[in-house]
Structure formats: structure tokens, C-alpha cells
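Worked example 3. Consider a protein that binds magnesium ion.
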Amino acid sequence: MISEEIKNKYQLVIGLEVHSQLLTNSKMFASDGSEYGNSPNTQISVITLGHPGTLPKVNIKAIEFAIKMGIACDCEITRLNIFDRKNYFYPDLPKGYQITQDKGPICVGGKVPIKLADGRNKEVQLNRIHMEEDAGKSIHLNDETDTLVDFNRAGTPLIEIVTEPDLRSAEEAYAFLAEIKKLVKYLDICDGNMEEGSLRCDANVSVMLKGSKEYGKKVEVKNMNSFRNVSRAIEHEHNRIIKLLEEGKEVVSETRTFDAATGKTSSMRTKEDLNDYRYFPEPDLSPVVVSDEWLNSIKNSMPVLPRELHKKFVEEFGLPDYDAGFLTESKEIALWFNELCTKTKNFKSASNWLMGPIKSYLNEQNLSISDFPISIDSLAELISLIDAGKVSFTVASQKIYPEMLKSSEDSPNKIAQKLNLLQESNESSLKPIVEAVLADNAAKVAEYKSGKKGLMGMFMGQVMKKSQGKADPKVATKLLTELLQN
Ligand code: ADP
Ligand code: MG
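Given these inputs, the predicted complex is written out as C-alpha cells:
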């Protein structure tokens, strides 16, 4: 264990490489399906397998998805796109090379804003986003020496998002990944599922003495299949590298693999036995030119981004930053809320319903908002019932809302009527009740008039009791005050 004091001498530096599998129907260069989870080797044409005489053809949808991500991250979009061959031998790579982009990524530069737990905002600079095809999958069965290969994934379109060495803690890396996941889901270009491998992350980690201008030697860590494991791997490397330096040992530039069971990393290969990939331009594909017209049509088809909705919720709806953050966390919730706000003008109440009762219900039932039994119109009606003083929030949330969850047939108004829950906010029907209460408590009325103003609460309690909880407190207070002055 190294002490906090020693740890504090060093600055942690992290750069991430995030692979995101694109949600196209077919592969990057072939018409085979690219769906996840089908029986092994059922989505493999001769093109995917790289048989002699076959030719790749670019999937235009995949290009558009990459450009969308580039626009969302403020990247510069490359107009003349050339693909390259990266040559290496591996059993899950049927062609013996991977088509990727080496020197000319489709998106250059760019940035991703993140928000940290202490409220700090940071812009993470991107180096690039490039396109490539995925490899197949090697499967190692327990107790067997053979390796099985599933080529279904081979040729699936990927974008690789590469940051500058700009992240300074595991927390920042976590926040960056969460932001990327949110973005690809809003853009509908990737399902963001880390467990299924549609979002994968390699972490480059180094440390340098604080104040130093020169980065230390980095290691690259692979095989983390959750955000939490990325954090754990970074923390592990953080400690391991500092310990090496403190012992006067050298950091080896290498690729390491993370073991989730132990929380430790171990060396896979060092840079010395690094492959020479012999990159060269893919001769079987002509360049893909992104015209102004095409780029503009992609810009015009961009879905709304989380930061745009966040801004709208804060600036137009006057909501606290915290609410806007919660509401834009998932696209489905954000859009549901946005529509709700076309039906009610009490935005804060709408937000409270989502952050409170609705969130609890969805969590308990493990449902997404699209499965929520209450329609947007009904919730808006419930909010307006409260705002009009016809029911209290307590009655609405404890009596009406549970009925609405049980049956989507009845409107909140009908439920309130059926259960006799509508408040008496009508002065003329409430007045006899108030008068009766005062008549029944003549002695207390006299005390009140001689200065014991604290008795108001007691009168109010009596009115509530007599009206069976339906008296609108505001109207009852007004009537009591008036009648007690006489
Ligand atoms: P390589 O030549 O090993 O591929 P690159 O310069 O292409 O390295 O960077 C790959 C990734 O490593 C990028 O995400 C980058 O931000 C990150 N990176 C580069 N240098 C460092 C460093 N010293 N510490 C941490 N991450 C780094
Ligand atoms: Mg590199």
C-alpha cells in the first residue's frame, strides 16, 4: 500500500479509446445482418469471410452514424475518406486484415463536456473518431483445449472515439464514458450496452510528478466490461505505477488485461513484441466523399441532444440544474417530460412527479417510461387538479395516483369523483360547515376573540374533520378568518 502523501506527489493521466458498435441493420462492408446474439456463424457471407474474388462495399448508414457522433462532439468532419488495411493474423480475423482508418479519421478533434460530482464542468478533448470493422469472437470453453470461433461479429461497423490524454481521475473517466453512452443512445447509433460489448473501452494510464510538463510512460488496459470495472482498473494501475516509480523501477509500455474477479491487471504483451500492421490504403474501396449537401442533410436530421434539452429545461422551464440533469439522463424520460410540458405549465410539479413517484414506480417494477401505465394526458390532468385546488397533493399522490396505476381507463377527475375526493373549494358549500364548527365551539370562539389566535389550527382541524378532509385549506382559512372577525 502506498500512502496518500506519496500518491499526492503524482498526477494521474488517462486517455480513453472507446469502441462503439453501430446499430446498422447490416455490416460495414457487406449485407450480412449485424444483430447481436444469434446462433454462431449464421451471419457470414463470403464477403465477411474474405473469400478471394469478393469485394467490400461501404455501408452508407454507418458513415452517417459516425458523422452524427462527430457533429454531436463538435469534431471537424473529413470530406475525403480513405479506408486502410491493418494487417495482422488472428483466428477471429477471417480476412487476415481489418479495414480501418489510419491517417485520415472521419472525425477530427472535437470535445465532450462532462459534469463531475462536485459540480465542476470539464471539456474532454477528443483526438479523433474513426471508423472500422469489428473482428469475430474467439470462444474458450471451460475444460476444453480447443478454441471456437464465431464470425457473426466480424465486419460489424464500429466507431472508435479516441480522447486526448485529458482525463485526470477514475471519476472523470467514468463521467466521460457515461456521457458517451448517453450521446450514442440519444443519437440512436448504438445501444450502449457494455456487458454485451456494444460499448468497449481501453484505458491508457500514466502518472507524472505534479507540475511536470512531460507525460510519463503509459500502459494500456483492456477487457473491462462495465463502467465500474474501468474505474477499478484505472485505480489499480494508478497505485501499481506509483509503486514501481517509488521503488525506482521502470514502467514498461505494455498492454495489460483486467481481471474483474481479483480487481488486478496482468501483462498481455509489451510494445517490443508489437505487431507491424503494415497499414496501406484499402485498394478495393474508392474514397467516400462527404459533400456539403450530404453533410447538411445529416445535420438537419440530427435528433435533439441531451445538452440541448438540459438547456431548455433550465432556461425555458426554469428548473434547477439538478432536475434538468435527472430528466435528461435517459432520452425516453427527457422526451416524455418534454411532451408533458406541452400539456401543463407547472413544470416544477411535472418534474417532481417524475423524480419522485414515477421514478420509484419504474425502479420497483423494473420498467422503462414507455411501459408506464399512466398517459401523459392523465398526469397533466392530475397536476391541474392539484393546481386548481380540487385535490391536495397528498390526496393526489396517495389516493388517486395509485388508482391510476391500477387502471388506465379512468381519468384522475373521474377517480376523484368516484372516491369522493374532490375538495370543497366552493365557498358557499363550505360556509355552512365552517359556521357549524364555530357554533359548536362558542367558548373557544370567545377565547380566540380575546386574543388566543393559536386556536385557528384547532378550528381548521374541526373543519377538515367535518368535511371529511375535502375542505380546500385556503378557502377554509379565508372563511374562518372572515367569520371570526364578526
Ligand atoms: P499509441 O501510439 O500507443 O497508439 P496514441 O498517442 O495513439 O498512443 O494514444 C492512444 C491513446 O493513449 C489516446 O487515447 C491518448 O490520449 C492516450 N495517451 C497517450 N499518451 C498518454 C499518456 N502518457 N498517459 C495516458 N494516456 C495517454
Ligand atoms: Mg495510436
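Take a moment to read the result before moving on. The first helix runs from residue 4 to 7. The chain has two domains: 4-294, 427-485.
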